[in-house]
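Reading is simple: the token line describes the chain's fold. The lines below illustrate.

. . .
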Amino acid sequence: MSLNKSMHPRNRYKDKPPDFAYLASKYPEFQAHVQTNLSGKAVLNFKEPEAVRALTCTLLKEDFGLSIEIPLERLIPTVPLRLNYIHWVEDLIDGQKQPRRGIDIGTGASCIYPLLGASMNGWFFLATEVDDICFDYATRNVEQNNLSDLVKVVKVPQKTLLMDALKEETEIVYDFCMCNPPFFANQLEAKGVNSRNARRPPPSSVNTGGVTEIMAEGGELEFVKRIIHDSLQLKKRLRWYSCMLGKKCSLVPLKEELRKQGVPKVTHTEFCQGRTMRWALAWSFYNDVTVPSPPSKKRKLDRARKPLSFSLPHVALKELQAKARALGCTAHSPLDAITSLLEKALTELRVLHKRVPCREQEKSLLLTAVENTWVHGRQKRREQMRQLRELPRAHQGADTPKKTEDSTRESSDRQPIVEPADKSVPLAESEQVPGGELSKKVDSDDVEMIPVKDGEDAATRETISKEPRSPGSVEHFLFKCLVNVLHEESDVMVEMHWVEGQNKDLMNQLCTFLRNTLLKAVAKS
């Protein structure tokens, strides 16, 4: 599970991600979905609904003592994300343990917000639901956890939000409402057609959920506007109104709508879980409420500077060192071996690179990617092999007498290609600037292959590289990054730090390629 340091400070998973290996050893139903990758780490396939459901149910059981059932055809919530929302509501209402009353609009089959709020903080919940299947499961989940005295699940008509749910309760003042609205306006949008930036990687987990859970007329923007409309009539019947958003672009128009309506207190936040981002909006008609501050720009900058990284476990280092020695690396340290293997992979990809000065017990490479050679590499190699196989056929189809007549001449003229003696791709020395940062001027070029003439001995069969270009000659590139290879306890960590360029997703792809290349080398040895 990919989590990060930008989660809510009180989120139990912020500094201690779930231990899949431990959970698998304790819960057989979860173990069935856990696999071990090439590095020996227990992993889960988040593309499988059964695996996601098993993880959610296991975490709720292990960490909160809750036993729930969720049908595969309905929304399967992720626990760390929902916990972030619960903690933010705690910040809104200024306290966790006091008796509080809340409303969960569209509680879903899991009824996860009321179950977490009631079990953790003793909150009272009115949980509404329009779907028959979700209502039945939510009611059962509340009952089997003995929380019926704190959570009331009510079935409401389609398109009902707050007004109809509260029409029979005229005296009760609620502290807050929560809502995970349907994100999408139609089926195409739910599938990502015309709604997802083409540069973004695909979702890392499966999208489950019934029609009423993931789609609504006008999508989440119109859905939340309807809640705003209800709040303008209810006003101080709730101290805080809140919604979680799936699209950052929804935040600005909704805040503008609240401004136009004269709502006095408005705030927002963001929920970060690895590659998953959500945004939350809250507003109040009370002047005495405590308004949490929105996310700071500094936190966003810190998150942007976080390097990409992967770890090579100590059990794989011996195999990688042996692989490096077989390729001619004379150094004995794991850092030198890993760096040499990275250099070989980068050379084959035609990614310009050069070792640069760094701290002790660390190796550094400065990379400049001029073209994307790591995506669809397997297809390209297959195409090259196909073309090579077709070359003899083309020669066979030529005129036979001419072929015989010219065969001797072709044989004498054909010149073999010799691999370069030095496979590193040269770059000019990088300059140092105050603060230890590398300058952005990079010098580079490919290695030129020189044909060998007849009669040359082995000593003269060398490849001669071109003179390195000047730093200003590399004008067009995809990105530049700094790769650090360093020890992390008994393992080796490879970090990729962004310097500049067009698209950070390309560096992410290259990082994945290099990690897979090293792990495959271990698997084959």
Notes: Residues 504-524 form the longest helix (21 residues). Residues 308-385+420-450+461-524 form one domain. The chain is about 35% helix and 20% strand. The chain has a mean pLDDT of 78.
